[in-house]
Amino acid sequence: MTPLLLLAAEKESAEVTDWAARLAWVVGLALFVALVYWLMREGWKWRGTLQGDLPELPGAPDEPGEVRLTMSGRYHGSTTAGQWLDRIVAHGLGSRSRAELTLTDAGLDVVRPGAADFFVPAAALREARLDKGIAGKVLTEGGLLVVTWAHGGKLIDSGFRSDRAAEHNEWVDVINSMIESTTREGAER
């Protein structure tokens, strides 16, 4: 026999898979992912506890008045005004969801299927603007409708994205004109 054939005949093929080691790695990785998920969840709950001083959100009035605008789209969350990364999670404001917005003389009604609805009274509205981002969501310039409102002594920015982004400009104009007329009426009294 030639030396090459002897060499090939003597070797046994290596075991293809070490199942015990592979199983240990998979279990270890699953435990690590579960730990990270649990820590993130605890952080979310802790943030909600820290924001516990925020009062309950008002509900929509029985007689909201004439409907000025409606919009269907997404609610992307709320932050402390001017701090687009400081997400507010208390009372469900941190949960993204679909949203139906209705602007009336009484204020802004936000209906969110699968999440807590809330109402922003007209007197609490401070500003509406187009922006490019809010905690966890960054879009093109002007792709997000941000409504600033006061609640419990705190200014809050809430971000919305319409299914038809062309509606955003009209919303900014109408909300800001509502705020100006409310401010004028308050000054005249």
UniProtKB/TrEMBL annotation:
<feature type="transmembrane region" description="Helical">
    <location>
        <begin position="20"/>
        <end position="40"/>
    </location>
</feature>
<dbReference type="Pfam" id="PF25362">
    <property type="entry name" value="bPH_11"/>
</dbReference>
<keyword id="KW-1133">Transmembrane helix</keyword>
<protein>
    <recommendedName>
        <fullName>PH domain-containing protein</fullName>
    </recommendedName>
</protein>
<dbReference type="InterPro" id="IPR057446">
    <property type="entry name" value="PH_bac"/>
</dbReference>
<feature type="domain" description="PH">
    <location>
        <begin position="54"/>
        <end position="174"/>
    </location>
</feature>
<keyword id="KW-0812">Transmembrane</keyword>
<keyword id="KW-0472">Membrane</keyword>
